[in-house]
Amino acid sequence: MDKKKKLLPIPIGYDAYTMWDKWAQLRVGLRAIMRSTRDRSGGNELVCGNHFLYQENPEFSVVADIEGPGIMYFWRTNFWHGSPWHYEIDGKDNLVEETATSQRMEAHTYRWDKDIPPHKFIPEKQFPEPLALTWTKNHGADLNWVPVPFEKSFRMAYSKTNYGTGYGIFHKFLPEIELSQPLKSFDWNAEPKQEVIDLFNSAGADIAPSNIPELTGEVDLLPNYPTEIANIANTKGQIRAIKFSVDKQDAVNLGSSWLKITWDDRKIASIDCPVAMFFGAANLYNRDDREFLVKSIPVSIKFTEINCELSCYFPMPFSSSVKIELISRSSQPIKNVKYSIRYEESDVIDSSAYFHATYADFLQPEKGKDLVFLDTKYVEGGGDWTGHFVGTTFIFTKQNYLRTLEGIQRFFFDDAEHPHGYGTGSEEWGGGGDYWGGHNTTLPLAGHPCGHNKPPKILNHKKKETENYQNPLDLVHSAYRFLLADLMPFGKNARIQFEHGAENETNEHYESVTYWYGTPTASLILTDELDIGNEVSEKEHLYSVKSASNVSEVESRYEWGVDHLDGDEIYPSHTELERHHTGESQFTLQINSENIGVMLRRKFDYLYPNQRAEVFVKKETKWISQGFWYSPGSNTCVLAQPKTNKWQAEAEEEPPVNEERTVNRRFYESEFYIGKSFTKGLNKIEIKIVFAPKEKELWKGHPFPEKSAWSEIRYSAYSYIEPVCED
Predict the structure, then answer these.
(1) 390, 485 in Cβ contact below 8 A?
(2) Which of 123, 427, 504, 648 has the most beta carbons within 10 angstroms of its beta carbon?
């Protein structure tokens, strides 16, 4: 019998930080979603801001609306914009703001000055630095890493809409999975654990255990020749620290060298990327003698008077062996490279996954198409993987062309065709705003370490006109973003995509390293699909429906980006059969009897707003409610912006002027999770969907173009299973 991975309690809330040494632990049954103010058409209208699901009043424009238990782990806005923010938890409204809120117009004028007054989140005790940072610390954004759990529902709404950009990361849970603590709604009287604050403040410090075995040495790297740094054999454990040090005169050459790490004699290295990018930067060029290029929790790049020191503290489990190599790309030897590898013996791999750093090079990005930083279907031999996405380092220009940063992110997990996550600008993913004002910054989990604010050489993106310059590395910009509490699990596959420019129009040379944990086996398997409108499929699945429309053809698209660019069609529309109802539907789906829970995925027509239904599962002879399945908004959103141009200070205080924005992106997907008490040991489940609408207007006095209904195109059943250990 195949040996199964141990599924340990999932760290949640502040435990997700204090148990950072469990970063590699599998999170089967956890789903991350990312919501934002993006332009739904795939363009960049109002710089991907001001697009709201709906608006209840001029001071309550809704960005995120989630029903059921979960946790918000991160929210980012541009400067103070939107503040005060409504954190509506379980139906109770709470205001969070920052101190610039009361002086918006004044702050607008001094926001990029050298000497600016400090600003903080309010209430400060619940949202202290460095978990919650304002634009005065990170150049252009307000960032909140304080976990905000909720038991029933959560809504994020903005009181002001001027430059109302933002995105947030949420976790949802399969019912009955074991968590590190009970999920209880946010306590407004409690303060974050000091241990969490200490972890954030320890960025750049050595946070790994010190009293464990250590391999040390010194090597010379010969040009284009692999040098073995470490070869740990016949041991089960995990790497806790990897360090390199070199004379800072050789730092750039070491940064351009290649790092390869192979676990357990696998055929393909799981870490295979440039050294500098592995440690969070485009290169190791330190033009202004900063102490730290990267000062984050998991990796750091530090300069002393003599040396450049690189450190990594991502936990990296293995079953039997580790091989670490460096390959120089320099034409000259790199002398006296010191290394230290600390590891511990343990059986952590039995409940965890391998660490991966996957490199991608985009010399000439494809017009209109996202850059695919990672597709686990095709890496390291391909196939199914269970794991979680934990970050990126990416170069977004090599000629100081920052318009590439207008591109958003799209993340797809487990065969999904609609993104689980969509962000806003790329610098916003990297913890900044407005291109960080051109400044460099390094934070515990995000940063912009490389690239000159005003380099001595400027290249015109289109005409390639040049002026004199001192060092071409001044023109190379990169950013990093690490996911700890807000990591993004998957049970079959993951695809991480970034736009290159507002409409995927730029031809900049990108490079990326994507950090992820993964074990080469599935924990989520497709077991059945019901195609609505297909008579054979409906009959096989015992499908019935009440108060329904006739089946009709819908021609539309998914939300993948612009459909046309420069006259060329990028994403053609396609046709699906669809039915919608305001009554109920019933059907049966096949599942794996060894499941530990089931995920239902529904493809539907997003034309109908705020689709909500109560889900029942038949247990013996009774229908038992599993909760509500809710998909807020529609393919029509409200564009809410002041009358005055957002770049003018007067816009800060103006109420919004609302407009409809409807896009031809009607195909959406949504998921619902059913606990093992209703699924384990069974090879099929009977489902009943009862329409339970949430009546909402697009904004007060202005209804959505269509009335709400429950739309059905396809239902898919995925069974969660215990992942198998690799031989």
Answers:
(1) no
(2) 427
